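Posting this for the archive.
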Amino acid sequence: MEVEQVSGQGGIPQDLQGKIQQYRATGITFGDLLKEKVVPQELKFSAHAENRIRSRGINVDKELKQKLNEAVRSVASKGGKDALIMAKESAFIVNVPSRTVITAMDSGFLKENVFTNIDSAAVI
């Protein structure tokens, strides 16, 4: 089926054709845009979470970041929105749709805390 058949107006307007050509020249695919805009790949840390990580001496190395990313993907696939992700000696509250770590706690804070406003949890 041709575009002209779908539009019913004999083709794509000239200004739109120019925009399509500009977009194609970038080399960016629709899939690339979708991944970037709809499904952020990397976990982000809020300023609050970064402060907590620093002040509490939590070591967030490459391996832990990878495990957090995997846990967030898993929670997202199950429909989770706000998750508690528990690691060996720390825990993180993550807003799953935005892939943002909201806060972080070390093992000392875990014993004293009650977690509210979460709908899912994962242990890594």
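The chain is about 45% helix and 20% strand. The chain has a mean pLDDT of 85.
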